[in-house]
Every structure is written in C-alpha cells, then in structure tokens.
TrEMBL record:
Function comment: Catalyzes the oxidative decarboxylation of 6-phosphogluconate to ribulose 5-phosphate and CO(2), with concomitant reduction of NADP to NADPH.
EC nos: 1.1.1.44
GO CC terms, sorted: membrane
Oligomer status and interactors: Homodimer.
UniProt protein name: 6-phosphogluconate dehydrogenase, decarboxylating
GO molecular function, a single term: NADP binding
Short name of any one Pfam family annotated for the protein: IF4E
C-alpha cells in the first residue's frame, strides 16, 4: 500500500510542476512530502494526502501539504490517548461500578453533597467533557469510522451511568442474582472487559498504524479464544454428566433462596416459563425451599406448592379430552445446549429399535425411551452401542433433550396405550411440537386425536409404517397424514430413512389430512391380506392338484419372481417352501394351519361395507383366516362332510402351472383395483386430496406388498389422475383380458377337485359383475319394494323413485316394517 501511495503522490507532484511556477518554499514542502522516507514513516498521512488532493479542490496543493504535515502529532497523540484514556477510563468505570456494589464508594454522595446537587451529574458532565476533548482529534482523523467512536463513547457513558444508578439502588441486587457459589461476578466483568478492549485496541491501532506486531498479537489472541471455545465445547460434551451435576447444584441453591430476593425470584420464574420446567429435576425440588417444603411442620401458606411459573398457563391445553392435566415440569431443558436430539422414539420393541438405528445411520440424533426404563439402558449397551443414540430415564428427561419443535414418535400398541402416552406428553410439550403415531392405529382414532391435539395447539401425525423389522432397519414405506403443518419439520427425517426406488425416489410422501395416512396403511394391510391368500391358494392347487413337493414348488415361485409377479411375498414364499428344520425335513408341513390376524384386514373390510365399496377379495381373505382358525371343527367336519376326492391330474402340468400363475396375476389386479376404489371413496367422504400414483410409489419399496407391479399402477394414474378403476386403464384391461382363459380354467379345475379358492373365485366374480351392464339387482330391488315399499327407479326415468302395490290388495306395506 505504501509503495502505491508513493507512486501516486510522485505522479501528482510531477503534474503540479507543469501547472505552477516553482518557488523555494514550494520546493521544500513538495520535497518533504515526496520524500520516500517520510512516506514509509507515515502511511496514514500519505493516505489522507491522496484523499485531500482528490476530494478537496478548494485548497491549493501547497495548503493541503501544510495541513498534512501536522498529522504526525495528532496521530501519535490519538494512539496514546486511546490506550491511556479510553482503555483506562473504561476499565475504571467498570471497576468503580463493581466496587460501588461492594460498598467501597457507598459514602461518596455525602462527601460530595453540594447543597442538594446530585453528584451523578458531576460524573456525567466531567466524563462527557473528557471524552469529547480526548476524541476531538480522532473524530476528524477517523471520518469513515465514526460508528466505532460512537459505540466506544456510548459504552463509556453507559458504564458510568450504570455505576451512578447502582449507587442509587437500582441495581443493588445484581450481585445476589449472579451469585455463582462464591464466585465474584466483578471479576467476570473485569476479565471480559479487559479481553474485549485489548483485542479492540490491538486490532484498531494495528490496522491504523500498520503495525504488524499488534496485528499478529490480535490474530493470535483471537485464535487462542477460538481454540479455548472449541476445547470447552469438547470438554462439555465429554463431561456432560459432571456439568449436569454442577448445574443441578447451582439451580437447587437458587431454589432455596427463591423468596429471599425479588430479582432472583424473577430470574427463576423467567427460566421456568421459558423452558417449561420446574426445578432442577421436577416439582419435588421445591421441597428444598422453606416456604414450599411439604412437611407437616411447615406453617407457610405455600406448603406443598410450587411457583406459578411451574404451571401451564394456556387454558386450551387443560381442556385436552384424553385425560386431566397436571403440569409436572422439569428443568432438564436447561441442558439442551449439551445434548439435543432431533427426534425421540417411545417403544423399544424390535420395530422401534430398528427404526432408531435407521435414523442414526442417516445422521439423526435419536432419544430412546421405553416405559420399562431398564430396557433403555439394555438397548444403549447392546444394539445401540457405539451410536449417537441417547437414552431418557423419564418422559421429562426425553422432552428436555429434544430440539424445537420437538418431534416424538410413538411405536406402542394401538389403542389405549397411545392415548395414555399422549396424555402424559401434552403437559410437557409446547405449542407447535409434534406427536407422531407410527403404530397400526385405527384411522378414526387418528381423526379424533388430530382434533383433540389441535385444541392443545400441538401437531399430530398418524403415519403408517410398513416393511416389518427389516424394513424398519434398512428402509420402510412411510405413509404420514394428519396436521400438514408438521410435514416440513419431519419430511427430511422420514424421506431420508424411507426405502428408495427407481432413481432414488423415497417411498414416503405426505398422504393427506387427519386419518389419511393410517387409512392408506389400513388399505395397504388389507391388500396384503389379499396377496397372501392368493399365494396360499396357488400353493394349495400345486400341492393338492399337481401333487408337487416343496422343493418343486419353491423353484416355481422362484421362476415366477422373475416375471410380472416379482414381489417380496413371492420371494419369501420360495424361501419358506425350501426351508428345512433341524431334522433336515421341511418346516412348512409341521406348522399348524390356523392363521392369526391383528385386525387391520378386518378394518378394511368393515370400511368397505360402510362406504359401499365392493372390496370382495380382501373380505374373503379375512374370512379365510377366520375359517382356518376353526381347526378343531374342521378336523371333525372332515370326517363327516363329503365332497370331491382329489384325483390324479391327467393334464399338462406345465400348462396348468401357467394357468395358476395367470390366475394369480389377474386376481392380484382385481385386489388392487378394489383397494384403490376404496381409497377414492374414502377421499370423497372425508374431503381428502389423495395422490394415488404417489401412494403406489410409496408401496413400491420397503413394505410387505412391494413389487414391480406397483410401478404399473403409478404409470396408470400418471396417465389419468382421475382414473375411476384400474380395470379401465388400457394396460390393466389388456392384462386381465389376456389372463381370462387360464384364470377360468384354474378356477374351474380347483372347484371340480374341491379346492377352496375364495379369493380366486371372488376376484373372477367381481370381474364378471363389473363388466356386465345389466345385473339381476333389478329383481332384488323389486323384492325390496314388494315386501318393504323401498321403491325403485325405472331405466327410462332415472332419479324418480316409484312404489308399486304388487298384490293389488291389502294396501301399501310400510317401509318401516322391514329393512332389507
């Protein structure tokens, strides 16, 4: 910079020589100003020389140079003044204020009592004069940095004013508020102030004087502070338990003195309201205070109580419909700076553990909690060992470790257990926090909870989670619905841990409002029932019609998994068929043929009946399980009920296997068509806006019904988002049409042999019914009108309901007499 300045001044002087006559005085001044030694010595002077020459044309070059030569004295004086006056005065002001708090200057008012004159004004006026005079020269030299001077000048005035007002009693309780177990807060002010001013002085003077020593000192000092902060952060993380103990000790000491100092009381109340906490660990900490102590000997009116700052202030949160609320509070929130989790999960069964580990793998810090607290530590010591997963010993502890807005996932048994945990969580959470139910809850419960939690100003998400234990660990299908305001806060976590398909599309997206997510999961589970029953019927035909052994059937399913039937369920069926027990015999024939169920398939069938949607295949799949559970009755009935006896198959085995495969494929199409019809009808009932192609994509990976087949469904809805039925899409219409001959042949063969095929047959019946423009329901409606006067419509007069007196006598029959 100095070299460039020298060159510029030299050029300027050369130009002056051409424009003006030389005089002895001019030559001396110019030579002095142009001296290389002088330019190197006084860089500040040279910068201002350029500024004057370029911007102040009212003066001649000679006049400018005469002014510039005086800058040395002002610059040096300013540097001395800054170090000796500004720094010293600032430190002195802080020290005076601090010592005044200790009573050293407690009598100065009486000493300087000037007949009623307030000595505060004396300090203010004297201080103002000192600083105005001291910085008069600096203000002119630092015309481009007046903000710094204003800040320093204002800080000095403020320090003196604080000291003066402290003498008048305004700040008389600050020492008690900041009593850190014997540590004198004056030293904190002194050290912080000294560090700030030393750094500011070194940086400012070093830059103005271009003093490399000061600049190096500034850089090293700043680097040292950064290193100390980094070290402190690492130590705080490593020794967080010790720090928690110290914080607890500090908080409890101040709890004891809560009523002793009004400012301390206000500080504690502010902290408890801001962090929604109560004491260090909970309300019981207030037993340490003599006024709140809950003993029979305590005469205080506040005995067994807590400060009002411990209580929930929002009446809406008291009106939550699941349970009566009592706000227990906790102060673990004060430790958030040490240990913050992105999300919490309650329920450490296998699904919960695997979902936690999945989130941990994707870089999210998860707080784990279980009603049986010992299971938390077992999980941390075993499955979660070496991870970033943190544990919680209580719900209060868990909530305190969460970032805001807090996100809590419930993976507990559907029903009352979910309501119980919500009941306990509501008083611990704040407006905008999110509760996520990841279990198989009934969608009506989710609708109810959305409404109840909205009144408590909390967000609720009911999310379907599919994929079983493996899916939860490595990528499930997630179907979230509820309060849409929660989606931006959970989207990153959900889509990160979800299964990926295609070019990396996550099998997770927002489904819809209220119970939409759990309704979609319910239909998913119903379709799962149907898929499993269809595979069982194919297996039954292979085993009892074709008399195939397990290894043969396993190879067939492995081959089918390379076709359009490629799916998770086909894959695992092949594995099950060839699996051998410890005695080297196939395990499958040893398993009792009585299927269990958790109810989600039943919910689908019930919903289909409620909304008048013919989801026949899922209904038959549910009833097939019910029939299988009658094991003892079936054994007895097999001895008494006659039917076709299995005869040896005389046809082409390879052809019939293809018939079974095509029957399975066609029936599968019917099952999904019915499922999406139910979704469409529910969307109309609840006003949901469902993305059917997106739902199909969610099911393509991570879930039990994942298959390549679902990609075709997405393409169908991409072609026509308003598609009424998959059977009306060109691809699926042609697929079913091509399967018809084999489908009917497989069904008729099974019927002739006496093989129960409820899903194969109902799928075919639905297809035939759906493709008929005229069904015998006209007779059914006439029967209803005959005995119940339920009326009917004519083909030529749609919308007009007519009743006929079918007998011609006896009068009309009241429709209230019958309900058919």
């Amino acid at each position: 910079m100095a070299t460039a300045t020298i060159q510029t001044i030299s050029l300027a002087l050369a130009q002056e020589k051409k424009e003006q006559k030389k005089s002895p005085h001019d030559v001396i001044v110019r030579e002095a100003a142009a001296s290389l030694e002088r330019c190197v010595k006084s860089p500040l002077q040279n910068r201002w020389a350029l500024w004057f020459y370029k911007n102040d044309k009212s003066k001649t070059w000679q006049a400018n140079l005469q002014l510039i030569t005086k800058f040395d004295t002002v610059e040096d004086f300013w540097a001395v003044l800054l170090s000796a006056v500004l720094l010293g005065a600032s430190f002195l002001a802080i020290g005076l204020w601090a010592w005044a708090e200790k009573g050293v200057l407690s009598n100065i008012s009486s000493i300087t009592d000037l007949g009623g004159f307030d000595p505060v004004w004396l300090f203010m006026v004297v201080g103002a004069v000192m600083f105005i005079l001291g910085f008069a020269g600096c203000i002119g030299a630092l015309r481009e940095n007046t903000h710094l001077l204003k800040f320093l000048l204002g800080a000095s005035f403020l320090a003196i004013g604080l000291w003066a007002w402290a003498e008048k009693g305004v700040l008389s309780n600050i020492s008690s508020i900041t009593d850190l177990g014997g540590f004198d807060p004056v030293w904190l002010f002194m050290v912080v102030g000294a560090v700030m001013f030393i750094l500011g002085f070194a940086g400012c003077i070093g830059a103005l004087r271009e003093n490399t020593h000061l600049l190096k000192f500034f850089s090293v000092f700043l680097g040292l502070i950064f290193f100390l902060e980094l070290t402190a952060g690492i130590l705080a993380f490593v020794f967080k338990d010790w720090i928690k103990d110290q914080l607890n000790f500090f908080i409890n000491n101040n709890v004891k003195a809560y009523r002793d100092d009004i400012d301390l009381q206000n500080l504690i109340d502010f902290a408890q309201e801001y962090w929604s906490c109560c004491g260090a660990h909970g309300p019981n900490d207030w037993n340490l205070n003599i006024y709140f102590n809950c003993t029979d000997m305590n005469p205080s009116r506040e005995r067994c109580g807590v400060p009002f700052s411990c209580c929930v202030k929002d009446p809406a949160r008291r009106s939550f419909g699941i349970c009566d609320l009592t706000p227990p509070g906790n102060s673990e929130a004060l430790f958030q700076v040490l240990e913050q989790a992105d999300i919490a999960l309650i329920g450490l069964a296998v699904m919960g553990q695997n979902l936690i580990l999945n989130m941990n793998d994707h870089g999210f810090v998860v707080c784990a909690y279980n009603r049986t607290v010992s299971k938390v530590q077992d999980f941390l010591n075993n499955e979660a060992k070496g991870t970033n997963v943190v544990g919680a010993q209580s719900l209060e502890d868990m909530v305190s470790k969460l970032k805001k807005p807090r996100r809590v996932v419930l993976l507990v048994k559907a029903g009352q257990a979910v309501d119980d945990f919500i009941c306990k969580l509501v008083p611990l959470l704040e407006a905008g926090d999110i509760i996520i139910d990841g279990g198989n809850s009934e969608y009506r419960d989710t609708v109810r909870r959305c409404k109840e939690l909205k009144s408590a100003q909390l967000l609720f998400v009911g999310s379907g989670v599919s994929g079983g234990e493996e899916g939860a660990r490595y990528g499930p299908s997630l179907m979230p619905g509820g309060h849409k305001e929660a989606w931006p806060h959970i989207k990153d976590i959900f889509q990160s841990i979800a299964a990926k398909v295609g070019t990396g599309e996550p099998c997770c997206d927002w489904v819809g409002d209220e119970g939409a997510g759990h309704f979609v999961k319910m239909v998913h589970n119903g379709i799962e029932y149907g898929d499993m029953q269809l595979i069982c019927e194919a297996y039954h035909l292979m085993k009892d019609v074709l008399s195939m052994d397990h290894d043969e059937m396993a190879k067939v399913f492995e081959e089918w998994n390379k076709t359009e039937l490629d799916s998770f369920l086909i894959e695992i069926t092949a594995n099950i068929l060839k699996f051998r027990d410890s005695d080297n015999k196939h395990l499958l024939p040893k398993i009792r043929d009585a299927a269990g169920q958790k109810g989600t398939g039943k919910w689908t069938a019930i919903s289909a009946l409620e909304y008048g949607t013919p989801v026949t295949l899922i209904g038959e799949a549910v009833f097939a399980r019910c029939l299988s559970s009658l094991k003892e009755e079936r054994v007895e009935a097999s001895k008494n009920l006659k039917g076709p006896k299995g005869a040896e198959f005389n046809g082409d085995k390879k052809v019939f296997l293809e018939d079974i495969r095509q029957a399975l494929y066609a029936s599968k199409i019917i099952s999904y068509a019915q499922g999406f019809m139910l979704l469409r009808q529910a969307a109309k009932e609840f006003g949901w806006s469902l993305n059917y192609g997106g739902i199909a994509l969610m099911w393509r990976g991570g879930c039990i019904i994942r298959s390549v087949f679902l990609g075709k469904i997405k393409e169908a809805f991409d072609r026509n988002p308003e598609l009424q039925s998959l059977l009306l899409d060109d691809f699926f219409r042609k697929a079913v049409q091509d399967c018809q001959e084999s489908w009917r042949r497989a069904v008729s063969t099974g019927v002739q042999v006496g093989i129960p095929m409820p899903c194969f047959t109902t799928a075919l019946s639905f297809y035939d019914g759906y493709r008929h423009d005229m069904l015998p329901a006209n007779l059914l409606q006439a029967q209803r009108d005959y005995f119940g006067a339920h009326t009917y419509e004519l083909l030529t007069k749609p919308g007009q309901y007519i009743h006929t007196n079918w007998t011609g006598h006896g009068g009309n029959v009241s429709s209230s007499s019958y309900n058919a």
